[in-house]
Amino acid sequence: MAATIREKQIASLKRMLNLNALPTKASLQEPVWKVLVYDRFGQDIISPLLSVKELRDMGVTLHLLLHSDRDPIPDVPAVYFVLPSQENVQRICQDCQSQLYESYYLNFISAISRQRLEDLASAALQANVVSQVSKVFDQYLNFISLEDHFFTVRHQNRDAISYHAINRGDVKDTEMESMMDTIVSSLFSVCVTLGTVPIIRSPRGNAAEMVAEKLDKKLRENLRDARNSLFTTDSMQAGQFSFQRPLLVILDRNMDLATPLHHTWTYQALAHDVLDLQLNRVVIEETVDMGTPTTGSRPKKKHKSYDLSCTDKFWMKQKGNPFPEVAEAVQNELEAYRSSEDEVKKLKSAMGLEGEDDGAISMLSDHTAKLTSAVSSLPELLEKKRLIDVHTNIATSLLDHIKARKLDVYFEMEEKLMSKQTLDKSLMDVISDPDAGTPEDKMRLFIIYYICTPSVTDAELDQYAISLEGAGCNLAPLQFVKRWKAFTKMAVAPSQYGGGGTKTVSMFSKLMSTGSQFVMEGVKNFVVKKHNLPATRVADALMELKSNPETDDYRYFDPKMLRVTDSSSIPRNKSPYLEAMVFIVGGGNYIEYQNLMDYVKTKTSVAGITRKITYGCSEVFNADDFIKQLTSLGEEKG
After folding, report:
1. Which of its termini does the chain have fewer beta carbons within 10 Å around, N or C?
2. pLDDT by residue (tens digit) across 136-153?
3. Considering the entire predicted model, what is its pTM?
Protein backbone atom coordinates (compact mmCIF):
# COMPACT_ATOMS: atom_id res chain seq x y z
CA MET A 1 0.00 0.00 0.00
CA ALA A 2 1.42 3.37 -0.98
CA ALA A 3 2.22 5.76 1.86
CA THR A 4 -0.43 8.37 2.62
CA ILE A 5 -0.10 12.04 1.73
CA ARG A 6 0.48 12.91 5.39
CA GLU A 7 3.29 10.36 5.78
CA LYS A 8 4.95 11.60 2.57
CA GLN A 9 4.78 15.21 3.70
CA ILE A 10 6.24 14.37 7.13
CA ALA A 11 9.09 12.46 5.44
CA SER A 12 9.83 15.50 3.22
CA LEU A 13 9.83 17.84 6.22
CA LYS A 14 12.15 15.55 8.19
CA ARG A 15 14.54 15.41 5.26
CA MET A 16 14.45 19.21 5.06
CA LEU A 17 15.15 19.54 8.80
CA ASN A 18 18.07 17.14 8.38
CA LEU A 19 19.60 19.75 6.04
CA ASN A 20 18.09 18.03 2.97
CA ALA A 21 19.72 14.66 3.57
CA LEU A 22 17.75 11.53 4.40
CA PRO A 23 17.63 11.11 8.23
CA THR A 24 19.88 8.26 9.39
CA LYS A 25 20.21 6.58 12.79
CA ALA A 26 23.34 8.61 13.47
CA SER A 27 21.69 11.92 12.53
CA LEU A 28 18.73 11.11 14.78
CA GLN A 29 20.97 10.21 17.74
CA GLU A 30 23.17 13.27 17.35
CA PRO A 31 21.33 15.85 15.26
CA VAL A 32 22.92 19.09 14.06
CA TRP A 33 21.51 21.85 16.25
CA LYS A 34 19.76 24.45 14.14
CA VAL A 35 17.23 27.28 14.04
CA LEU A 36 14.00 26.92 12.05
CA VAL A 37 12.68 30.12 10.46
CA TYR A 38 9.25 29.98 8.84
CA ASP A 39 6.50 32.29 7.64
CA ARG A 40 2.85 31.85 8.67
CA PHE A 41 2.22 29.50 5.72
CA GLY A 42 5.19 27.32 6.72
CA GLN A 43 3.99 27.30 10.33
CA ASP A 44 0.52 26.09 9.25
CA ILE A 45 2.07 23.25 7.21
CA ILE A 46 4.36 22.06 10.03
CA SER A 47 2.08 22.48 13.07
CA PRO A 48 -0.42 19.65 12.33
CA LEU A 49 2.45 17.27 11.45
CA LEU A 50 5.35 17.73 13.90
CA SER A 51 5.12 18.45 17.61
CA VAL A 52 7.62 20.69 19.44
CA LYS A 53 9.18 17.52 20.92
CA GLU A 54 9.64 16.02 17.45
CA LEU A 55 11.25 19.26 16.23
CA ARG A 56 13.59 19.16 19.25
CA ASP A 57 14.51 15.55 18.42
CA MET A 58 15.42 16.71 14.92
CA GLY A 59 17.80 19.28 16.44
CA VAL A 60 15.56 22.37 16.18
CA THR A 61 16.41 24.48 19.23
CA LEU A 62 14.37 27.51 18.21
CA HIS A 63 11.52 28.02 15.74
CA LEU A 64 10.87 31.63 14.82
CA LEU A 65 8.66 33.58 12.44
CA LEU A 66 10.50 35.17 9.53
CA HIS A 67 9.01 38.63 10.05
CA SER A 68 9.57 38.76 13.82
CA ASP A 69 12.48 40.52 15.51
CA ARG A 70 15.25 37.91 15.69
CA ASP A 71 18.60 38.17 17.46
CA PRO A 72 21.82 37.03 15.72
CA ILE A 73 22.92 33.46 16.54
CA PRO A 74 26.20 33.45 14.58
CA ASP A 75 27.38 29.87 15.20
CA VAL A 76 24.20 27.99 14.25
CA PRO A 77 22.81 27.00 10.81
CA ALA A 78 19.30 28.25 9.97
CA VAL A 79 16.71 26.27 8.00
CA TYR A 80 14.21 28.56 6.27
CA PHE A 81 10.78 27.26 5.22
CA VAL A 82 8.83 30.04 3.48
CA LEU A 83 6.77 30.92 0.42
CA PRO A 84 8.89 32.53 -2.34
CA SER A 85 7.04 35.88 -2.06
CA GLN A 86 8.78 39.19 -2.67
CA GLU A 87 8.62 40.35 0.97
CA ASN A 88 9.95 36.98 2.19
CA VAL A 89 12.87 37.07 -0.25
CA GLN A 90 13.66 40.67 0.78
CA ARG A 91 13.66 39.66 4.45
CA ILE A 92 16.01 36.72 3.76
CA CYS A 93 18.37 39.14 1.92
CA GLN A 94 18.23 41.40 5.00
CA ASP A 95 19.12 38.42 7.26
CA CYS A 96 22.13 37.62 5.06
CA GLN A 97 23.31 41.22 5.22
CA SER A 98 22.90 41.26 9.02
CA GLN A 99 24.80 37.94 9.16
CA LEU A 100 22.32 36.48 11.64
CA TYR A 101 23.37 32.83 11.28
CA GLU A 102 26.37 30.67 10.48
CA SER A 103 24.81 29.20 7.30
CA TYR A 104 21.51 29.37 5.44
CA TYR A 105 19.46 26.43 4.12
CA LEU A 106 16.70 28.05 2.07
CA ASN A 107 13.63 25.89 1.46
CA PHE A 108 10.79 27.37 -0.54
CA ILE A 109 7.29 25.96 -0.05
CA SER A 110 6.67 26.19 -3.80
CA ALA A 111 9.03 26.87 -6.71
CA ILE A 112 10.90 30.19 -6.60
CA SER A 113 10.96 32.25 -9.80
CA ARG A 114 14.21 32.96 -11.60
CA GLN A 115 13.90 36.71 -10.92
CA ARG A 116 13.66 36.23 -7.14
CA LEU A 117 16.50 33.71 -7.20
CA GLU A 118 18.65 36.36 -8.89
CA ASP A 119 17.63 38.92 -6.24
CA LEU A 120 18.79 36.46 -3.57
CA ALA A 121 22.08 35.81 -5.35
CA SER A 122 22.92 39.49 -5.73
CA ALA A 123 22.06 40.16 -2.06
CA ALA A 124 24.34 37.27 -0.99
CA LEU A 125 27.14 38.68 -3.19
CA GLN A 126 26.78 42.18 -1.75
CA ALA A 127 26.80 40.87 1.83
CA ASN A 128 29.74 38.61 1.02
CA VAL A 129 27.90 35.55 2.38
CA VAL A 130 27.74 33.41 -0.79
CA SER A 131 29.67 30.60 0.90
CA GLN A 132 27.21 30.64 3.81
CA VAL A 133 24.13 30.04 1.63
CA SER A 134 24.51 26.27 1.75
CA LYS A 135 21.47 25.10 -0.20
CA VAL A 136 18.42 26.47 -1.98
CA PHE A 137 15.57 24.01 -2.44
CA ASP A 138 12.09 24.05 -3.97
CA GLN A 139 10.23 21.73 -1.61
CA TYR A 140 6.83 21.49 -3.35
CA LEU A 141 5.03 21.22 0.00
CA ASN A 142 2.45 23.90 -0.73
CA PHE A 143 -0.50 22.21 1.04
CA ILE A 144 -1.57 21.31 4.57
CA SER A 145 -2.09 17.61 5.45
CA LEU A 146 -4.67 17.52 8.22
CA GLU A 147 -5.06 13.73 8.18
CA ASP A 148 -3.74 10.70 6.31
CA HIS A 149 -6.35 11.26 3.59
CA PHE A 150 -7.30 14.91 3.97
CA PHE A 151 -5.45 18.03 2.79
CA THR A 152 -6.26 21.67 2.18
CA VAL A 153 -4.53 24.39 0.15
CA ARG A 154 -3.95 26.92 2.90
CA HIS A 155 -5.17 28.28 6.22
CA GLN A 156 -3.57 31.75 6.32
CA ASN A 157 -5.08 34.20 3.86
CA ARG A 158 -7.58 31.58 2.69
CA ASP A 159 -10.13 34.34 2.04
CA ALA A 160 -8.16 35.09 -1.14
CA ILE A 161 -9.29 31.74 -2.65
CA SER A 162 -12.61 31.34 -0.82
CA TYR A 163 -16.00 30.45 -2.30
CA HIS A 164 -16.93 34.13 -1.95
CA ALA A 165 -13.77 35.29 -3.78
CA ILE A 166 -14.37 32.88 -6.71
CA ASN A 167 -18.12 33.60 -7.05
CA ARG A 168 -18.12 37.38 -6.60
CA GLY A 169 -20.05 39.15 -9.33
CA ASP A 170 -17.27 41.73 -9.86
CA VAL A 171 -14.32 39.30 -9.92
CA LYS A 172 -11.80 40.32 -12.59
CA ASP A 173 -10.24 37.82 -15.01
CA THR A 174 -6.77 38.54 -13.63
CA GLU A 175 -7.97 37.87 -10.06
CA MET A 176 -9.59 34.62 -11.19
CA GLU A 177 -6.36 33.54 -12.94
CA SER A 178 -4.37 34.30 -9.79
CA MET A 179 -6.77 32.27 -7.58
CA MET A 180 -6.71 29.30 -9.96
CA ASP A 181 -2.87 29.47 -10.10
CA THR A 182 -2.69 29.33 -6.29
CA ILE A 183 -4.89 26.21 -6.23
CA VAL A 184 -2.98 24.60 -9.13
CA SER A 185 0.37 25.25 -7.41
CA SER A 186 -0.95 23.38 -4.37
CA LEU A 187 -2.31 20.42 -6.38
CA PHE A 188 0.96 20.23 -8.31
CA SER A 189 2.82 20.03 -4.97
CA VAL A 190 0.51 17.18 -3.91
CA CYS A 191 1.33 15.26 -7.13
CA VAL A 192 5.10 15.84 -6.64
CA THR A 193 4.96 14.77 -2.97
CA LEU A 194 3.04 11.61 -3.87
CA GLY A 195 5.28 11.04 -6.91
CA THR A 196 2.36 10.30 -9.22
CA VAL A 197 0.86 11.84 -12.35
CA PRO A 198 -2.90 11.34 -12.05
CA ILE A 199 -5.59 11.12 -14.69
CA ILE A 200 -7.77 14.20 -14.19
CA ARG A 201 -11.56 14.40 -14.55
CA SER A 202 -13.65 17.54 -14.10
CA PRO A 203 -17.09 18.90 -14.97
CA ARG A 204 -17.33 21.52 -17.73
CA GLY A 205 -17.88 25.24 -17.55
CA ASN A 206 -16.81 26.20 -14.04
CA ALA A 207 -13.79 26.94 -11.82
CA ALA A 208 -13.05 23.21 -11.48
CA GLU A 209 -12.52 22.95 -15.26
CA MET A 210 -10.11 25.93 -15.16
CA VAL A 211 -8.08 24.24 -12.40
CA ALA A 212 -8.05 20.92 -14.31
CA GLU A 213 -6.82 22.59 -17.52
CA LYS A 214 -4.09 24.55 -15.76
CA LEU A 215 -2.92 21.52 -13.75
CA ASP A 216 -2.82 19.35 -16.88
CA LYS A 217 -0.69 22.01 -18.61
CA LYS A 218 1.68 22.35 -15.62
CA LEU A 219 2.20 18.58 -15.31
CA ARG A 220 2.66 18.27 -19.07
CA GLU A 221 5.35 20.99 -19.14
CA ASN A 222 7.21 19.33 -16.27
CA LEU A 223 7.11 15.88 -17.90
CA ARG A 224 8.31 17.32 -21.22
CA ASP A 225 11.51 18.67 -19.63
CA ALA A 226 13.13 15.26 -19.12
CA ARG A 227 16.28 16.64 -17.41
CA ASN A 228 14.41 18.61 -14.75
CA SER A 229 11.23 16.58 -14.46
CA LEU A 230 10.04 16.00 -10.90
CA PHE A 231 8.48 12.70 -11.97
CA THR A 232 11.53 10.91 -13.39
CA THR A 233 12.73 7.54 -12.12
CA ASP A 234 15.55 9.20 -10.15
CA SER A 235 13.36 11.64 -8.34
CA MET A 236 10.76 9.01 -7.50
CA GLN A 237 11.50 7.11 -4.34
CA ALA A 238 11.36 3.34 -4.39
CA GLY A 239 7.97 1.92 -3.66
CA GLN A 240 6.08 4.79 -5.25
CA PHE A 241 5.34 2.90 -8.42
CA SER A 242 2.08 1.14 -8.87
CA PHE A 243 0.70 -0.45 -12.01
CA GLN A 244 -2.24 1.85 -12.05
CA ARG A 245 -2.28 5.61 -11.90
CA PRO A 246 -4.59 7.40 -9.50
CA LEU A 247 -7.63 9.40 -10.53
CA LEU A 248 -7.95 13.07 -9.59
CA VAL A 249 -11.55 14.31 -9.57
CA ILE A 250 -11.75 18.12 -9.41
CA LEU A 251 -15.23 19.38 -8.47
CA ASP A 252 -16.81 22.78 -7.94
CA ARG A 253 -18.49 23.71 -4.66
CA ASN A 254 -21.49 24.93 -6.68
CA MET A 255 -22.46 21.33 -7.44
CA ASP A 256 -23.65 20.96 -3.83
CA LEU A 257 -24.43 23.87 -1.51
CA ALA A 258 -26.58 21.80 0.87
CA THR A 259 -23.88 19.57 2.43
CA PRO A 260 -21.71 22.41 3.86
CA LEU A 261 -24.82 23.82 5.59
CA HIS A 262 -25.98 20.47 6.98
CA HIS A 263 -26.16 20.02 10.75
CA THR A 264 -24.12 16.92 11.37
CA TRP A 265 -24.05 14.09 13.92
CA THR A 266 -20.54 12.62 13.78
CA TYR A 267 -17.90 13.56 16.36
CA GLN A 268 -15.27 15.29 14.19
CA ALA A 269 -17.73 17.12 11.94
CA LEU A 270 -19.77 18.21 14.98
CA ALA A 271 -16.63 19.55 16.69
CA HIS A 272 -15.84 21.50 13.50
CA ASP A 273 -19.40 22.81 13.22
CA VAL A 274 -20.04 24.01 16.77
CA LEU A 275 -16.57 24.34 18.32
CA ASP A 276 -13.52 26.06 16.91
CA LEU A 277 -11.65 23.14 15.24
CA GLN A 278 -8.79 24.43 13.10
CA LEU A 279 -5.59 22.70 12.00
CA ASN A 280 -6.43 19.70 14.26
CA ARG A 281 -6.73 21.90 17.36
CA VAL A 282 -10.10 22.40 19.04
CA VAL A 283 -10.88 25.35 21.33
CA ILE A 284 -13.63 25.08 23.92
CA GLU A 285 -15.01 27.69 26.28
CA GLU A 286 -15.22 26.75 29.95
CA THR A 287 -16.91 28.70 32.71
CA VAL A 288 -14.66 28.97 35.75
CA ASP A 289 -15.85 30.23 39.12
CA MET A 290 -13.46 33.07 40.05
CA GLY A 291 -15.23 33.96 43.28
CA THR A 292 -13.81 34.17 46.80
CA PRO A 293 -15.62 33.69 50.14
CA THR A 294 -15.90 37.48 50.49
CA THR A 295 -16.83 38.50 46.95
CA GLY A 296 -19.07 35.53 46.26
CA SER A 297 -19.37 33.63 42.95
CA ARG A 298 -18.04 35.29 39.78
CA PRO A 299 -18.18 33.06 36.70
CA LYS A 300 -15.53 33.80 34.08
CA LYS A 301 -15.13 32.38 30.58
CA LYS A 302 -11.85 30.59 29.93
CA HIS A 303 -10.67 29.16 26.59
CA LYS A 304 -8.92 25.80 26.51
CA SER A 305 -7.36 24.28 23.41
CA TYR A 306 -6.67 20.60 22.76
CA ASP A 307 -4.62 18.98 20.00
CA LEU A 308 -6.45 16.15 18.24
CA SER A 309 -3.59 14.29 16.65
CA CYS A 310 -3.14 10.92 14.95
CA THR A 311 -1.46 9.61 18.12
CA ASP A 312 -4.74 9.98 20.02
CA LYS A 313 -6.15 6.46 19.62
CA PHE A 314 -9.59 7.36 20.98
CA TRP A 315 -9.93 10.23 18.48
CA MET A 316 -8.75 8.09 15.55
CA LYS A 317 -11.25 5.39 16.43
CA GLN A 318 -14.26 7.58 17.23
CA LYS A 319 -14.01 10.76 15.09
CA GLY A 320 -16.27 9.35 12.34
CA ASN A 321 -18.85 7.86 14.70
CA PRO A 322 -22.24 9.35 15.66
CA PHE A 323 -22.02 11.50 18.78
CA PRO A 324 -24.10 9.26 21.10
CA GLU A 325 -21.73 6.34 20.42
CA VAL A 326 -18.76 8.58 21.25
CA ALA A 327 -20.43 9.62 24.51
CA GLU A 328 -20.84 5.98 25.52
CA ALA A 329 -17.27 5.18 24.49
CA VAL A 330 -15.94 7.99 26.72
CA GLN A 331 -17.99 6.64 29.62
CA ASN A 332 -16.63 3.10 29.03
CA GLU A 333 -13.05 4.39 28.85
CA LEU A 334 -13.58 6.23 32.12
CA GLU A 335 -14.89 3.09 33.83
CA ALA A 336 -11.98 0.99 32.48
CA TYR A 337 -9.51 3.60 33.73
CA ARG A 338 -11.09 3.68 37.19
CA SER A 339 -10.85 -0.11 37.55
CA SER A 340 -7.12 0.03 36.60
CA GLU A 341 -6.62 2.83 39.12
CA ASP A 342 -8.41 0.84 41.85
CA GLU A 343 -6.16 -2.14 41.15
CA VAL A 344 -3.04 -0.03 41.71
CA LYS A 345 -4.51 1.28 44.99
CA LYS A 346 -5.31 -2.26 46.17
CA LEU A 347 -1.78 -3.42 45.34
CA LYS A 348 -0.29 -0.53 47.29
CA SER A 349 -2.25 -1.45 50.42
CA ALA A 350 -1.37 -5.12 49.88
CA MET A 351 2.31 -4.23 50.03
CA GLY A 352 1.91 -3.74 53.77
CA LEU A 353 1.70 -7.55 54.18
CA GLU A 354 4.22 -8.83 56.69
CA GLY A 355 4.56 -12.25 58.24
CA GLU A 356 6.94 -15.13 58.80
CA ASP A 357 5.00 -17.89 57.10
CA ASP A 358 5.93 -18.94 53.58
CA GLY A 359 2.45 -18.24 52.23
CA ALA A 360 2.62 -14.55 53.17
CA ILE A 361 6.13 -14.20 51.72
CA SER A 362 5.12 -15.84 48.43
CA MET A 363 2.06 -13.55 48.36
CA LEU A 364 4.34 -10.59 48.94
CA SER A 365 6.65 -11.50 46.06
CA ASP A 366 3.58 -12.06 43.89
CA HIS A 367 2.25 -8.60 44.82
CA THR A 368 5.68 -7.06 44.22
CA ALA A 369 5.68 -8.43 40.67
CA LYS A 370 2.16 -7.11 40.16
CA LEU A 371 3.04 -3.70 41.55
CA THR A 372 6.17 -3.52 39.39
CA SER A 373 4.04 -4.15 36.31
CA ALA A 374 1.47 -1.63 37.56
CA VAL A 375 4.15 1.01 38.10
CA SER A 376 5.66 0.37 34.66
CA SER A 377 2.20 0.86 33.12
CA LEU A 378 1.65 4.07 35.11
CA PRO A 379 2.82 6.51 32.36
CA GLU A 380 0.46 4.78 29.95
CA LEU A 381 -2.32 5.02 32.53
CA LEU A 382 -1.70 8.74 33.08
CA GLU A 383 -1.73 9.39 29.32
CA LYS A 384 -5.00 7.47 29.11
CA LYS A 385 -6.43 9.62 31.90
CA ARG A 386 -5.32 12.81 30.08
CA LEU A 387 -7.05 11.71 26.84
CA ILE A 388 -10.22 10.73 28.73
CA ASP A 389 -10.29 14.21 30.32
CA VAL A 390 -9.80 15.85 26.91
CA HIS A 391 -12.67 13.93 25.30
CA THR A 392 -14.90 14.30 28.37
CA ASN A 393 -14.50 18.09 28.12
CA ILE A 394 -15.08 18.16 24.35
CA ALA A 395 -18.11 15.85 24.52
CA THR A 396 -19.60 17.84 27.43
CA SER A 397 -19.19 21.06 25.49
CA LEU A 398 -20.78 19.49 22.39
CA LEU A 399 -23.71 18.23 24.45
CA ASP A 400 -24.31 21.74 25.83
CA HIS A 401 -24.54 23.05 22.27
CA ILE A 402 -26.80 20.18 21.13
CA LYS A 403 -29.23 20.82 23.99
CA ALA A 404 -29.15 24.61 23.80
CA ARG A 405 -29.72 24.70 20.02
CA LYS A 406 -31.75 21.46 19.58
CA LEU A 407 -29.22 20.32 16.99
CA ASP A 408 -30.60 16.78 16.97
CA VAL A 409 -33.95 18.15 15.70
CA TYR A 410 -32.18 20.04 12.90
CA PHE A 411 -30.08 17.03 11.95
CA GLU A 412 -33.12 14.76 11.73
CA MET A 413 -35.17 17.22 9.66
CA GLU A 414 -32.31 17.91 7.22
CA GLU A 415 -31.57 14.20 6.76
CA LYS A 416 -35.25 13.67 5.93
CA LEU A 417 -35.29 16.62 3.51
CA MET A 418 -32.15 15.40 1.76
CA SER A 419 -33.52 11.85 1.41
CA LYS A 420 -37.09 12.84 0.47
CA GLN A 421 -38.74 11.45 3.61
CA THR A 422 -41.84 13.06 5.11
CA LEU A 423 -41.22 15.42 8.02
CA ASP A 424 -42.67 14.75 11.48
CA LYS A 425 -43.13 18.44 12.23
CA SER A 426 -43.52 21.38 9.91
CA LEU A 427 -40.63 23.56 8.86
CA MET A 428 -42.59 26.65 9.89
CA ASP A 429 -42.88 25.34 13.49
CA VAL A 430 -39.09 25.03 13.82
CA ILE A 431 -38.44 28.44 12.22
CA SER A 432 -40.94 30.18 14.50
CA ASP A 433 -39.85 28.31 17.68
CA PRO A 434 -37.78 30.88 19.65
CA ASP A 435 -36.01 28.09 21.61
CA ALA A 436 -34.89 26.08 18.58
CA GLY A 437 -31.41 27.20 17.66
CA THR A 438 -29.86 30.41 16.38
CA PRO A 439 -31.02 32.47 13.36
CA GLU A 440 -28.12 30.87 11.41
CA ASP A 441 -29.41 27.37 12.29
CA LYS A 442 -32.83 28.31 10.91
CA MET A 443 -31.37 29.80 7.74
CA ARG A 444 -29.27 26.65 7.18
CA LEU A 445 -32.34 24.43 7.55
CA PHE A 446 -34.43 26.55 5.19
CA ILE A 447 -31.75 26.76 2.48
CA ILE A 448 -31.45 22.94 2.54
CA TYR A 449 -35.25 22.70 2.19
CA TYR A 450 -35.17 25.22 -0.67
CA ILE A 451 -32.34 23.41 -2.50
CA CYS A 452 -33.82 19.93 -2.05
CA THR A 453 -37.39 20.87 -2.97
CA PRO A 454 -37.67 21.26 -6.76
CA SER A 455 -40.73 23.52 -6.74
CA VAL A 456 -41.12 26.19 -4.08
CA THR A 457 -43.68 28.79 -5.20
CA ASP A 458 -43.00 32.52 -4.82
CA ALA A 459 -45.92 32.79 -2.38
CA GLU A 460 -44.47 30.03 -0.18
CA LEU A 461 -41.04 31.64 -0.35
CA ASP A 462 -42.45 35.03 0.74
CA GLN A 463 -44.28 33.37 3.62
CA TYR A 464 -41.11 31.64 4.83
CA ALA A 465 -39.07 34.84 4.33
CA ILE A 466 -41.42 36.77 6.68
CA SER A 467 -41.09 33.98 9.24
CA LEU A 468 -37.26 33.87 8.90
CA GLU A 469 -37.02 37.66 9.31
CA GLY A 470 -39.22 37.38 12.38
CA ALA A 471 -36.73 34.83 13.77
CA GLY A 472 -33.91 37.39 13.33
CA CYS A 473 -32.43 35.93 10.12
CA ASN A 474 -30.55 37.93 7.54
CA LEU A 475 -32.13 37.01 4.19
CA ALA A 476 -29.01 37.80 2.09
CA PRO A 477 -27.80 34.13 1.89
CA LEU A 478 -31.23 33.16 0.54
CA GLN A 479 -31.00 35.90 -2.12
CA PHE A 480 -27.76 34.37 -3.38
CA VAL A 481 -29.07 30.78 -3.28
CA LYS A 482 -32.14 31.94 -5.29
CA ARG A 483 -29.81 33.37 -7.97
CA TRP A 484 -27.66 30.22 -7.82
CA LYS A 485 -30.72 27.98 -8.26
CA ALA A 486 -31.97 30.06 -11.19
CA PHE A 487 -28.62 30.27 -13.00
CA THR A 488 -27.11 26.87 -12.39
CA LYS A 489 -27.84 24.32 -15.08
CA MET A 490 -27.26 21.67 -12.43
CA ALA A 491 -30.22 22.73 -10.29
CA VAL A 492 -30.08 19.98 -7.75
CA ALA A 493 -32.21 17.09 -8.88
CA PRO A 494 -34.50 15.46 -6.31
CA SER A 495 -32.38 12.29 -6.53
CA GLN A 496 -29.19 14.21 -5.68
CA TYR A 497 -29.13 13.26 -2.00
CA GLY A 498 -31.15 10.05 -2.18
CA GLY A 499 -30.88 6.88 -0.16
CA GLY A 500 -30.31 8.21 3.34
CA GLY A 501 -32.52 9.12 6.22
CA THR A 502 -32.69 8.45 9.91
CA LYS A 503 -34.65 6.29 12.27
CA THR A 504 -34.94 7.33 15.89
CA VAL A 505 -34.20 4.63 18.45
CA SER A 506 -34.85 4.72 22.18
CA MET A 507 -33.41 7.59 24.19
CA PHE A 508 -30.13 6.78 25.81
CA SER A 509 -28.86 8.05 29.09
CA LYS A 510 -25.16 7.23 29.17
CA LEU A 511 -23.13 10.38 29.03
CA MET A 512 -20.59 11.86 31.30
CA SER A 513 -19.86 15.12 32.92
CA THR A 514 -16.61 15.56 34.80
CA GLY A 515 -16.59 12.80 37.39
CA SER A 516 -20.27 11.85 37.23
CA GLN A 517 -22.87 10.63 34.79
CA PHE A 518 -25.69 12.85 33.68
CA VAL A 519 -28.74 12.05 31.63
CA MET A 520 -28.88 13.02 27.99
CA GLU A 521 -32.58 13.82 28.20
CA GLY A 522 -34.46 15.24 25.27
CA VAL A 523 -31.72 14.38 22.81
CA LYS A 524 -32.49 11.72 20.23
CA ASN A 525 -30.24 8.82 19.35
CA PHE A 526 -30.32 8.06 15.65
CA VAL A 527 -29.53 5.05 13.61
CA VAL A 528 -28.30 6.82 10.51
CA LYS A 529 -28.59 4.99 7.24
CA LYS A 530 -25.45 5.42 5.19
CA HIS A 531 -25.94 7.36 2.00
CA ASN A 532 -23.61 8.86 -0.55
CA LEU A 533 -23.42 12.63 -0.84
CA PRO A 534 -23.04 14.19 -4.34
CA ALA A 535 -19.21 14.30 -4.22
CA THR A 536 -19.09 10.63 -3.18
CA ARG A 537 -21.57 9.66 -5.90
CA VAL A 538 -19.46 11.37 -8.57
CA ALA A 539 -16.28 9.69 -7.21
CA ASP A 540 -18.03 6.31 -7.25
CA ALA A 541 -19.22 6.72 -10.87
CA LEU A 542 -15.77 7.81 -12.10
CA MET A 543 -13.74 5.26 -10.10
CA GLU A 544 -15.99 2.37 -11.06
CA LEU A 545 -16.30 3.58 -14.69
CA LYS A 546 -20.09 3.53 -14.43
CA SER A 547 -22.23 5.20 -17.04
CA ASN A 548 -23.92 8.10 -15.29
CA PRO A 549 -25.67 11.09 -16.92
CA GLU A 550 -24.12 13.30 -14.23
CA THR A 551 -20.51 12.36 -15.08
CA ASP A 552 -20.60 11.15 -18.72
CA ASP A 553 -19.88 14.68 -19.93
CA TYR A 554 -16.86 15.22 -17.63
CA ARG A 555 -13.58 16.33 -19.22
CA TYR A 556 -10.73 13.80 -19.32
CA PHE A 557 -7.09 14.90 -19.04
CA ASP A 558 -4.06 12.65 -19.23
CA PRO A 559 -0.89 14.78 -18.80
CA LYS A 560 1.26 11.84 -19.96
CA MET A 561 -0.31 11.79 -23.41
CA LEU A 562 1.89 13.66 -25.87
CA ARG A 563 -0.83 15.37 -27.88
CA VAL A 564 -3.97 16.95 -26.58
CA THR A 565 -6.80 16.09 -28.93
CA ASP A 566 -10.53 16.35 -28.55
CA SER A 567 -10.71 12.58 -28.30
CA SER A 568 -8.76 12.88 -25.03
CA SER A 569 -12.16 13.23 -23.39
CA ILE A 570 -12.57 9.45 -23.82
CA PRO A 571 -11.33 7.49 -20.79
CA ARG A 572 -8.53 5.12 -21.76
CA ASN A 573 -8.44 2.62 -18.94
CA LYS A 574 -10.81 -0.31 -18.73
CA SER A 575 -10.37 -1.41 -15.11
CA PRO A 576 -11.79 0.49 -12.10
CA TYR A 577 -9.44 2.88 -10.27
CA LEU A 578 -8.05 1.71 -6.94
CA GLU A 579 -6.86 5.15 -5.84
CA ALA A 580 -8.52 8.53 -6.20
CA MET A 581 -8.27 12.10 -4.99
CA VAL A 582 -11.42 14.20 -4.76
CA PHE A 583 -10.68 17.92 -4.69
CA ILE A 584 -13.31 20.63 -4.16
CA VAL A 585 -12.65 24.12 -5.57
CA GLY A 586 -14.47 26.62 -3.35
CA GLY A 587 -14.10 24.90 0.01
CA GLY A 588 -14.79 21.59 1.71
CA ASN A 589 -15.78 20.19 5.10
CA TYR A 590 -15.54 17.17 7.39
CA ILE A 591 -19.02 15.89 6.44
CA GLU A 592 -17.98 15.24 2.84
CA TYR A 593 -14.62 13.84 3.96
CA GLN A 594 -16.29 11.40 6.38
CA ASN A 595 -18.81 10.36 3.73
CA LEU A 596 -15.97 9.42 1.34
CA MET A 597 -14.14 7.49 4.11
CA ASP A 598 -17.35 5.57 4.90
CA TYR A 599 -17.81 4.83 1.18
CA VAL A 600 -14.27 3.37 0.89
CA LYS A 601 -14.97 1.03 3.81
CA THR A 602 -17.88 -0.49 1.89
CA LYS A 603 -15.66 -1.36 -1.07
CA THR A 604 -14.13 -4.81 -1.22
CA SER A 605 -10.42 -5.05 -1.97
CA VAL A 606 -9.33 -6.00 -5.48
CA ALA A 607 -6.53 -8.60 -5.70
CA GLY A 608 -5.62 -7.87 -2.09
CA ILE A 609 -5.35 -4.10 -2.70
CA THR A 610 -7.83 -1.95 -0.80
CA ARG A 611 -9.19 1.15 -2.43
CA LYS A 612 -7.98 4.52 -1.22
CA ILE A 613 -9.55 7.97 -1.51
CA THR A 614 -7.89 11.22 -0.45
CA TYR A 615 -10.05 14.32 0.02
CA GLY A 616 -8.77 17.84 -0.60
CA CYS A 617 -10.26 21.32 -0.75
CA SER A 618 -9.19 24.92 -1.35
CA GLU A 619 -10.19 25.81 2.23
CA VAL A 620 -11.88 24.02 5.13
CA PHE A 621 -14.92 25.93 6.37
CA ASN A 622 -17.78 25.14 8.72
CA ALA A 623 -21.40 26.15 8.17
CA ASP A 624 -21.06 29.49 10.00
CA ASP A 625 -18.14 30.50 7.75
CA PHE A 626 -20.11 29.41 4.69
CA ILE A 627 -23.24 31.33 5.73
CA LYS A 628 -21.07 34.47 6.13
CA GLN A 629 -19.70 34.00 2.60
CA LEU A 630 -23.22 33.45 1.18
CA THR A 631 -24.40 36.56 3.06
CA SER A 632 -21.66 38.68 1.44
CA LEU A 633 -22.57 37.28 -1.98
CA GLY A 634 -26.29 37.86 -1.38
CA GLU A 635 -25.68 41.48 -0.39
CA GLU A 636 -24.07 42.19 -3.78
CA LYS A 637 -26.31 43.95 -6.26
CA GLY A 638 -27.54 41.01 -8.34
Report:
1. N
2. 999 999 999 999 999 999
3. 0.88
